[in-house]
């Protein structure tokens, strides 16, 4: 049986799907191009290297995605946070640093943190029940936070809340990170109504 025709059909279909995916990602990147990747680092510690001290709690993480609030299947193409990657999540007294391999570190001040909860899936990543830590925060320039004049702003001027998903395999590391974030943002909300010690 001649398999040339079926092979050609499969190749055309695959190429068509790849082109559609590439087009979709370009449109998403254009849509999200005005969204700021975190906030300006405080002047006294302009880079994470200057921030590593005994007051910093950090842990290795697998970063999954950043999505609009409570829309875990819609990835945002924010510069530095657009792709899955390994990295380090560091918590300082003034905020959280998302330091992913191959990307510039992203700083989220404590005043921008809104929620801290757990999840079992995001985009194409599924784990055990409550296996993901979800950090909810306001994007820079979207209102509600004292920001540097050099920070980009939302085109609409409205508040844009997002959720960033992290996989922290070590339970002790996860508990330390969660406790550290709650200590710098005591007003943080857990929509599930549970704490790490209850998990």
Helical amount among residues, as a percent range?
10-25%
Mean pLDDT over all positions: 76
Structural class: alpha+beta
How big a fraction of the residues is strand?
Answer: 25-35%
Could you give the count of β-strands?
9
The 3D shape can be described as: elongated
**Overall radius of gyration:** 19 Å
Biggest pleated sheet: 7 strands, antiparallel
Low-confidence stretches: 143-156, 195-199
Give the number of helices: 2
Strands ordered across the widest β-sheet: 4-3-2-1-9-8-5
Helix-strand sequence: HEEEEEEEEEH
N-C termini distance? 58 Å
3D structure, described in words:
It is a single chain. This protein has 2 helices and 9 strands, in the order αβββββββββα. The chain has about 200 residues and is α+β, with helices and mostly antiparallel strands. A 7-stranded antiparallel β-sheet has the order 4-3-2-1-9-8-5. It has a two-stranded antiparallel sheet with strand order 6-7. A hairpin with a 2-residue loop joins strand 2 and strand 3. The longest helix has 28 residues. The C terminus is likely disordered.
Question: Could you list some keywords that capture this structure?
Answer:
single chain, about 200 residues, alpha+beta, seven-stranded antiparallel beta sheet, two-stranded antiparallel sheet, 2 helices, 9 strands, about 20% helix
């Amino acid at each position: 049986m001649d398999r040339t025709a079926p092979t050609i059909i499969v190749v055309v279909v695959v190429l068509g799907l790849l082109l559609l995916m590439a087009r979709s990602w370009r449109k998403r990147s254009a849509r999200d191009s005005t969204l700021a990747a975190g906030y300006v680092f405080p002047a006294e510690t302009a880079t994470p290297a200057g921030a590593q001290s005994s007051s910093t709690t950090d842990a290795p993480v697998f970063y999954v995605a950043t999505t609009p609030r409570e829309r875990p299947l819609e990835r945002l193409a924010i510069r530095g946070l657009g792709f899955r990657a390994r990295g380090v999540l560091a918590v300082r007294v003034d905020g959280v640093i998302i330091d992913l391999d191959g990307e510039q570190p992203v700083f989220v001040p404590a005043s921008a943190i809104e929620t801290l909860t757990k999840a079992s899936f995001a985009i194409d990543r599924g784990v055990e029940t409550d296996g993901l830590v979800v950090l909810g925060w306001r994007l820079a320039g979207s209102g509600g936070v004292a920001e540097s004049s050099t920070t980009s702003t939302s085109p609409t001027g409205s508040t844009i809340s997002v959720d960033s998903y992290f996989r922290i395999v070590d339970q002790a590391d996860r508990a330390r990170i969660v406790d550290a974030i709650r200590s710098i943002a005591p007003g943080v909300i857990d929509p599930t109504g549970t704490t790490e010690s209850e998990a």
